[in-house]
Design goal:
The radius of gyration is 20 Å and the shape is globular. The protein has 300 residues and is α+β, with helices and mostly antiparallel strands. The strands form four sheets. Strands 1-8-9-5 form a four-stranded mixed β-sheet. Strands 3-4-6-7 form a four-stranded antiparallel β-sheet. 40% of the residues lie in helices and 26% in strands.
């Protein structure tokens, strides 16, 4: 008889993504800047707003280090951002733990039975490595100036915590043995996002794009693109344009081969066709500059 506790985890109906400036910055730091903080203890600043009356330039000061037992100078990336937001979405729903398979399905929209949502071994390994990185990366944040200027938080303005406060264990998820991540407490990034009401949301089913294989690169592309679309839809004054160069930079393929970029463009276009078919956007136009694919202009 199995004595392990059995956790019943129902699929999320919404993916939540913290979307304030610091959160976006830390998942897109270049190798040199990230390593300089981790190895040399260098602090960094995020400019929140310029020339605020009574304050001048408003900044958030932060510092990233490794937790004890962790030795990582590999910068956080958009895949880590997707894993992170999938975990936060289940934590916010009230679940105390999550399996790697559940994370994969939240990142890809593969929620049906019959093996469709089974995690490919290489993606399972990528998710596991990402979780170890998120758990082992400690961020120290001082956003006192931001909170004072914009009246965001009444609680402490200084936080120091693992980006994803969690630990691994073996248990039963929906009756099946699984390696799971148990959440220890709210992430400091989610806490800030809630205080500022800067959270994007969308149905994870939108990520299940037909004819797009869920490779490491394609998962990053889809999760970044849908986040950008959700951000544009939320902020009516934002330009309704997403450039291919921006996607390539954020997904760290700006220096990839011509074939890789061509494949990525095809995936992005197929994904926009899917978002249009699902009604998440009304339409889109692929724009060329100098006879090369340059950007996508959306209407919603």
């Amino acid at each position: 008889m199995n004595s392990k506790q059995n956790f019943q985890i129902m699929p999320i109906k919404l993916r939540f993504v913290p979307n304030f400036k610091l959160c976006k910055v830390i998942y897109n730091l270049q190798q040199e800047k990230f390593a300089r903080m981790v190895v040399n203890g260098k602090q960094r600043k995020v400019l929140e707003k310029k020339n605020v009356k009574g304050y001048g330039d408003i900044v958030t000061v932060y510092h990233i280090t490794n937790d004890d037992g962790c030795d990582n100078t590999d910068p956080l990336n958009e895949f880590d951002y997707a894993v992170f937001s999938a975990c936060l979405s289940y934590f916010d729903k009230g679940d105390s733990c999550i399996s790697l398979g559940i994370i994969y399905r939240a990142m890809t929209g593969k929620t049906t039975d019959g093996g469709k949502g089974k995690v490919p071994p290489e993606i399972r390994e990528s998710i596991l490595l990402s979780l170890k990185k998120l758990i082992g990366t400690v961020i120290e944040i001082d956003d006192a100036q931001v909170n004072s200027a914009f009246n965001y938080a009444k609680s402490s303005s200084k936080k120091c915590s693992s980006i994803l406060p969690a630990h691994f264990d073996e248990t039963l998820i929906n009756g099946n043995d699984a390696s799971v991540v148990f959440f220890d407490r709210i992430s400091p990034l989610m806490e800030i996002a809630k205080q500022r009401k800067q959270i994007l949301s969308y149905s994870p089913a939108l990520l299940d794009s037909p004819n797009v294989r869920n490779s490491f690169m394609n998962i990053m592309l889809k999760n970044y693109v849908i986040r950008r679309v959700a951000e544009i839809k939320l902020h009516k004054n934002m330009r309704k344009i997403i450039t291919f160069a921006d996607v390539f930079e954020k997904c760290r393929i700006a220096n990839a081969s011509r074939k890789t970029k061509m494949d990525a463009r095809n995936v992005i276009i197929k994904f926009f066709e899917h978002l249009q078919a699902e009604g998440f956007i009304k339409s889109f136009e692929v724009v060329k500059e100098k006879n090369a694919l340059y950007s996508i202009h959306i209407t919603y």
